[in-house]
Amino acid sequence: MKLITVLRITLILSLITLVIIYVNLNIVLSENKLLKSELRAYETELDKTLRELNYYKSELNKKIAEYDKLLIKYNEVDRWLKANITYYESHISKLKTELQTYASELEYFRSYLSKAVIPNDLPYKNDTLNKIFLDNAVNSLRYVSGLLPVLPSSAEDMIVKLIEWVSNNTYYQYDPSVMKDHWKLPNETIKDQGGDCDDLAVLGYALLKSVGFKDVYLLIWRANDSAHVGVLVYVDGKWFLVDPTWAYVNDYGLRLSFDMLRIDKSKWVIHVVPSHLHPTTKKYLLDGGFTRYQWYDYRTNRYITDPIIGRQISLKELLLNWPRRGGYEARVWSLIAYDRSVIDTSLDSIVEVLNELTRR
Questions:
Q1: Which residues contact 138 (CB under 8 A, 6 or more apart)?
Q2: Is 64 contained in some domain?
Q3: At what angle do helices 127-139 and 197-210 cross, to 10 degrees?
Q4: How many independent structural domains does the chain possess?
Q5: What is the arithmetic mean of pLDDT over 72-81?
Q6: Side-chain-facing half-sphere of 261: CA atoms under 13 Å
Q7: Is residue 289 scored above 60 in pLDDT?
Q8: What is the tens place of the pLDDT at every residue in 91-142?
Q9: Which domain holds residue 260?
Q10: Is 234 within 8 Å of 241 (Cβ atoms)?
Q11: I need a labelling partner for 154 at 20 to 30 A (CA). Which of 125, 209, 264, 287 fits?
């Protein structure tokens, strides 16, 4: 009986132990399942991290390759610089020496210019100074004799040729601000390939005097804040008003004519004063057939090929027409003759003096 009881107790204890073991086993299995889930998550994260690592490793390899290329170039440049540094150091030293020389020369010219008499604000009120300037203007042509045009023998053809030559070989240039109203000599104007209205007028004066014209004058008009200079010539009983800047003579104006085509295929022509373009540009356009010269007749308002510049009107009307063709009404006039000048006076006084000069 006691044995049976012991066996029962032992069996019960065994069952309880088995239950406990079963419960613990379920707990362990549940935890194991959770751990497996977490492990799979970690594995997924690890795979992602490995892929990123491989990507960054690939990018790093690219950068290393680029760096290697740059390093090679750097080494090449470094070797080149080291090989040439002596040359450039000597070159820099030479440039410094030249700079010092130029600085010394600049100081000399500054000193020279401070003492020099520069022909500003002509005409002088002193006839002797005007005469000296006009002599120097004509004499300066010998320094550029190889560049001068061959002029025809006819006076009218000569004047037309002069206008055409100046138009081809010069353009309008403003005076340097430091020089104010500086009147250049003709050799300077030719070398510079241009100048302002007084420079081009003096060039025209010198060319006409150099070929034997006797009665040649510089004429200046002023209208409010504007002023202009041209050349007046008297030959064979005829007056010729020559303006190299405006390419103008006796109511004719020389123009560069351009044939243009609108978008709608209609044709039109534009006309440009030659002094508005650089000589190199004009040569290119003329040689290439992009433009041509035509003369505009202000009296008939049409373009022609051969102007008749010998046609005459009264001297006063001839002079009045000149500024009016540019849209100005001249109020004050000045005249520079070789041995007599009249400064800031009326047009009637200028006409009177001119008639007196040509009667002598």
A1: 186, 206, 209, 210
A2: no
A3: 70
A4: 1
A5: 83
A6: 2
A7: yes
A8: 788 888 888 888 887 776 666 555 444 444 556 667 888 888 999 999 999 9
A9: 127-359
A10: no
A11: 287
